[in-house]
Design goal:
228 residues, five-stranded antiparallel sheet
Length: 228
């Protein structure tokens, strides 16, 4: 029962993490910067993996998509690939996790389901590592440019999407680790042995029937001289 509850908790954690990772991919604010005036913010610059935009004080946004994938910086291409891999791995991990849980009726025996659940845990851990690597790589580029005194272009700060990605990656890794422990719990659980008593029961029933029937003694025959 404890193992089933742990698998349900792990499944909820991994699904929540996968949803957060998936929502990070199209989120706008991967990095953000603002130009403040005397009274209000005059302009806000923000960018993600697909475009860069600027929003003025009236709320009007002007965006520019990245023109060519081959002309992009290497870290943006790497972040795109890692995030897409994280989303795909999380999808397959959710399927394997649903099949490998003990509360479902698919997947075969308990040992087979434990192996499938362990595989789902490994996939979710790999998904979380991909997402965390992507967010960390992007954040490292932002911080290195921000603290570089020779960098004269627009400097950005960490956006909300990075924190959402880190949170989702952490949930995927934690839930995947709990899934991996399910195979250890299944191997340590004692196996119940069931002895086959079919033949014994038949023999015992025959013995009972034989003992319940009284033995018939043959009639005694006496000679005529016995009555004299």
């Amino acid at each position: 029962m404890a193992s089933t509850s742990a698998e349900i908790i792990a499944f909820l954690l991994t699904i929540s993490g996968w949803v957060l990772v998936s929502s990070t991919l199209p989120t706008d604010y991967w990095k953000v910067s603002s130009i403040d005036g005397t009274v209000i913010t005059t302009a806000t610059y923000w960018a993600n993996l697909w475009k860069t935009c600027v929003t003025d004080s009236t709320g009007v946004s002007n965006c520019k998509d990245f023109p060519s994938m081959l002309a992009l910086d290497g870290y943006i291409q790497a972040c795109r690939g890692l995030m897409i891999s994280a989303v795909c791995l999380g999808f397959f991990g959710a399927i394997f996790g649903l099949v490998g849980m003990k509360c479902t009726k698919v997947g075969g025996s308990d040992q087979t389901k434990a192996k499938i659940a362990c595989l789902a845990g490994l996939i979710f851990i790999l998904s979380g590592l991909c997402s965390m690597t992507s967010c960390s790589l992007y954040a490292n580029r932002i911080t290195s440019e921000f603290f570089d005194p020779s960098f004269v272009a627009q400097k950005y700060e960490l956006g909300a999407a990075l924190f959402i990605g880190w949170a989702g990656a952490s949930l995927c890794i934690i839930g995947g680790s709990i899934f991996c422990f399910s195979i250890a719990e299944n191997s340590n659980s004692p196996r119940r042995g069931y002895a086959y008593n079919g033949a014994t029961s038949v023999m015992s029933s025959r013995t009972k029937v034989h003992n319940s029937v009284p033995e018939k003694t043959p009639p005694k025959h006496f000679d005529k001289n016995a009555y004299v």
